[in-house]
Amino acid sequence: MSFNARSAWSIYRRELWRFLRTAFQSVLAPVLTTSLYILVFGSAIGNRMPDVGSVDYGAFIIPGLLMLTLLGETTSNSSFGIYMPRFTGTIYELLSAPVGVAETLAGFVGAAATKSLILAAIILLTARIFVPYDIAHPVFAFVFILLVAASFSLFGFILGIWADSFEKLGIIPMLILTPLTFLGGTFYSIADLPAPWNTVALANPIVYLVSGLRWTFYGSADVSIWVSLALTLAFLVACTAIIAYIFRTGWRLRN
Amino acid sequence: MPEPILELAGLTKVFPGGFKALDNVDLTINRGEIFALLGPNGAGKTTLIGAVCGLVRPTSGTIRAFGQDTKSDWRQARARIGLVPQELSTDMFEPVLHAVEYSRGLFGLAPDPARIEEILRSLSLWDKRNNRIMELSGGMKRRVLIAKAMAHEPDLLFLDEPTAGVDVELRKDMWHQIDAMRARGVTVILTTHYIEEAEEMADRVGIIRGGKILMVDQKDAMMARLGRTEAHVMLAQPLDTLPPAIAAFPVELKEGGRSLCYRGGDGTGKGREEVAELTKALIASGIDYVGIDVRESSLEDIFVSLLGDEEEQAA
Ligand SMILES: Nc1ncnc2c1ncn2[C@@H]1O[C@H](COP(=O)(O)OP(=O)(O)O)[C@@H](O)[C@H]1O
Ligand SMILES: [Mg+2]
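The joint structure predicted for all components is written out below.
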C-alpha cells in the first residue's frame, strides 16, 4: 500500500482554504451560539445553581457545551466537505486521481479535524471571558478533543457519502447528536439523576464523551476517563473500517 | 508501427437497474493519435470514459492503459490520464491559478510554477489567473477544466464533448487547442455528437451506439470505404443513349436524359479526379453541358447510412 503525501497535503490545504474563505459563518456562528449558552446557563442562571461536586456550575457545563458544539460542527463540516463535491459533480477529479482512501481521509478528515481544533480553541478562550475555569489535565484534554474531532470527522465523512439530499445531511446532527448531548450530562451529573435514569443514561454514548472531557478539565467525572478514551478509540476504528469498506466497494462514489 | 496506449477488451457496463450502457466494447487507441468517439446522446460515450478514468466500475472486461491493468495498477494508470468532463463542474469560487495548482498537487506532483504558467498561457488564461472561475465565460471555464486536466502532464487526455453547446467561434478555438495538445505528444480521445468535429479533428473515428462500437477506422479510410462523390452534369441537349467512352464511367442518365449522374470515388478525392476526366470525355465526345454540381458525402452521410443499416437489421 502506498501513500502519496503530496496528494493528501493538497486536499488538506484546499479544504482549509475553503474553511477560511467562509470563516465568518463557519467560526463566528458556532462561537456565538456556544458563548450564548455559557453566558445564559453559566453566568446568569449558574450563579443561582449549587456547585456540582466541588466545581462551580458555570464551569461545570463548559466541557459539555464544548462537546455539543464540537460534535455538531465537526460532523456537519466533514459531511459537507465530501457531500458538496458529490452534489456539484466536482468529485470527478478526486475519483480520477491516483488517490486512495488513505490520502482522501488524511486530506478531508485531517482538515475537518483541524477546523474543529481551531473552533474548540476559540470557544475555550471565549468562555474564559464569562466564566473562570482551569484545565486540570491539558494534555489529556488536547488528546481527547483531538480524538473526538478525528472520529466525528470520520463519522461526518460517512454521513456525507451516505446522504443523497441536504435534508439527510442535516438530520443526524440535529435529531441525534444534539438531543443526545443535551441528555448526556452537559447540564448535570449523571450521578444526580434518580434511579433508574442514572443507569439508562449510560446507554447514551455521548455520556462517555462529555464525561471524558469533563474529567480532563476537573479531574472528576461520571465514568472513568479510560472507558471514555477506549470507547472513542473504538468509534474511530469502526468509522475508519466503514470508510475503507465504502472505498473498496465504491458505494455512492463510483457508479 | 502504432503503439497501443489504451486497450479495452470485452468492456461491459450494466448499471444497477439492469441498463446495459456498454456492451462488449473492444477498442485500441494508439499513442499520439487523436481519436474521436462519435455517437448520439445516450450512446455510452461518457460511460466509456468513466470506466477508463475510474468513475464507473466496469461490470466485466479489461482496460489496459500504458500496458497496465487499470483495475490492479490504478495508481500508475490514473497518474498519466487526464479528464475534462462533459459538465462544467468545478468550485466556482476558486481563483483559476489556485484551482490548477490544486489539480497538479492532487495528482501527486511537486509544484512547478513555470509549467503551470506555460499551460495557462497556452490556453490564454494567464491574464485571468487571479479571477474566480465564476467570473469567466463558459468557453473560458472549459479552458480552466482543460488546464486542470493538463496540470499533471498526462500522456492520455479525455475530452468529453468539449464543444457541446458552444458557438462556432469557440469550437474552432477548441480544435486549435486540441491540435496544440497533439503537438505536445498527448494522445487525445474526444467524444462528440458533431460529425463535423470528428471529421475535422480526428485521425481515427469510432462510431458508438447503444453501448456497441459499430465501426472503428482511420477517418480517411472510413471516408474511402463509405465516402462517395456525387456529380450531376446538366446536359445542353437531352440524350437517349451514352457513347461507350462515357458509359465506361459509373454514370446514368436522369431526368429524361437531361442530366448525367455520376456516383463513384471513395472519399479520398479520387471521385473528383474522375469527374474531371468525365467532363473531358464529354467534350471529346461532343456532348455539351451547362452546369456541374459536385458533392462529397460527409461522415454525416456515413453515420446516417450506418445507423440506417442497424435499424433495418433490428427491424
Ligand atoms: N448512473 C447511471 N445509472 C443508470 N443509467 C445510467 C447511468 N449513467 C448513464 N446511464 C445511462 O447509460 C446510457 C449511456 O449514457 P452516457 O454514457 O452518458 O451516454 P453519452 O455520453 O454517449 O451521451 C444512457 O442511456 C444513460 O441514461
Ligand atoms: Mg456524455
